[in-house]
Amino acid sequence: MARKRSVPRFTVPSLTPEIGAQVAGILQLRLHALNDLALTLKHVHWNVVGPHFIGVHEMIDPQVDVVRAYVDEIAERIATLGTSVQGTPGALVAARTWDDYSIGRADTIAHLGALDVVYQGVITDHRKAADDTEELDPVTNDMLIGHLHQLELFHWFIRAHLENSAGALATEDDDTEKGAAKSGTEFDEEGAGVGDSGAAADAAIGRRSSAEAPGKK
Question: Do the Cβ atoms of 98 and 217 come closer than 8 Å?
Answer without folding.
Answer: yes
